[in-house]
Amino acid sequence: MQLKSALKGTALLLWLACSLFFVCILLLPMRGIAAELAGQWFWQTEEGVEAGEPWRPFDFPQNPPVESDTQQVWLKTNLPQDMPRDASLLIQSRDQAFEVWLGDSCIYTYGEMRPAFMSYGQRWHIVSIPDGSGGRELRIHAYSASDATLGYFGQIWLDGNVEQVLRIFRQDVPYLMNIPLAVFMLVMMMIYATSPAAPKRLYNSFIAFITVFIIWMICATNSKQYVLDAPLFWRFSMQMSEYLLPLLANIVIFQVVDRSYKKMVRWTVLIYAVLLFITVGAEFLGFNGMSRGRVLLYTCLPLLEMAALYAIARSAHQGNMYARAVSVPLLFMAGAGTLDGISLYRHWYVVDGYLLPYTTFSLCVFVAFIMRHQIKRERMLMNREAGLKQEVSQAIEKATMDNLTKCYNRNKLEIVLATEILQHKNEEEPFSVIMLDIDFFKTVNDTYGHEVGDEVLAGFAEVIRHNIKKKDVLVRWGGEEFIILFRHCTGEEAMMIAERLRQKVESTPLYDGKIRITCSLGVASWHGADDSETQLLKRVDDALYMAKRTGRNRVCREPKSNLHWFKNLYSDEETE
């Protein structure tokens, strides 16, 4: 529990620190004119430029209305007259190579104007503008194998070099604030997944989803390029994540919906899996399958998620609390993903980045529900475990108790004696035992009957129990014989206790004061490493026998020379 609390606190502090850092970046003052090149733009095909055809206007930053088989296009506009110092253009490209021309001079080139394996990836570019270029004509020559990305650069910013770098980081603030939050949720889920009470499949599915979501957000950032300038790697990772996210999300949904709706969700999972397999295969075959397949992905996304939402709604209506919790992130993330798809391929609206990272907070609803439910489940299991332990303890105690006298039986003595021997194996007299026997108990049974005899036994045990400590173990050895184990007790101390018990029994009437009894007691102590349980019990039994043999109602202790003592004892018996 302490480790869980420490990990939770560390993850929370990490998220708060990262969030504060990126808020500070967001609040940094902007300098320069920060102009968007959103004035009048024109376009023309490669063949049209060579033929001298007139340029055609279009609504920038939308992509130009080229034919579906067109792979190269020219764009042009005029730079403003007032240019910032150290002016540069911030251009973001996706799956296309391009050249930037200022008048008749090419000032920037990215990629080759021809097909490339796995396309050209996603990348930002800072293009420096020579001094004195105000009012000059700016042209962009672009190549792409997909008409959805050909000539589309989103917003192109004109500003100073330093401001452009700050803009890159500012555009990443939504991602970089939500990445620590997603990591925090991932850590929480991994912590709770270690609990024996956790539903492993659901937790593992959600952990996989959160992991891929974090990877996707990292790939969507601009600042990743400072860490690793590998456009193809980032493009492949991001597009793979885009296909995996709905697939893993529906696997999570499959885990929470009721059994009657699992078949419907299973079909959505299968469709996403088949689409992923086909597009990745087409990509490695050189058909740019992952980029082309995204059109189909974002077309199927709202339809398939409507089916998943129906299954969740029906399950929630029937009282499924997990389904209610997962419906919130599903609505937000499916909606944001659909809008991002429209922005990518239809360009009906233009935003800096994606909407999907803003839905990270909707996942908190599901994570909070899981944590709350997990805590309740763990408490229930802890209470159940405590109850079971109590039942087991009672069962063990019952198995080691004598019903008549409420003393322990031989089973308990074997356990306690073995523990004491193990703990004090090499010591001498760390514990002692006393064996008691009621004198002439057969006479009590013969005179008053066995029922009265049982009450006398129970009364005798009660007298002994009230005159020893709770830590001392009282055992009914059999019939009218009892054994007491005294921890940390020497033989001398055991002798004094035995004498006190003998006197107490003698002076205490039993059976409503009608019967008085006496008892004989034998005392023996542990002798160390050379001793054994069998020898100890034999010695205390012989000591009791000696007490009975020499007149009863007395205490005898094992002598120092046991062999000499018992030899004389048995010799006396033989002579008699």
Automatic annotation (TrEMBL):
Highest rank taxon of the organism: Bacteria
Gene Ontology biological-process annotations: cell adhesion involved in single-species biofilm formation; negative regulation of bacterial-type flagellum-dependent cell motility
Record-annotated GGDEF domain positions: 429-560
Membrane spanning stretches: 175-194, 206-228, 240-257, 269-289, 295-313, 325-348, 354-371
GO terms, molecular function: diguanylate cyclase activity
Keywords: Membrane, Transmembrane, Transmembrane helix
Pfam families registered for this protein in UniProt: GGDEF (PF00990)
An annotated GO cellular component: plasma membrane
Record's keyword annotation contains Transmembrane: yes
InterPro entries the record matches: Diguanylate_Cyclase, GGDEF_dom, Nucleotide_cyclase, Rev_trsase/Diguanyl_cyclase
Protein name: Diguanylate cyclase (GGDEF) domain-containing protein
Organism: Selenomonas ruminantium
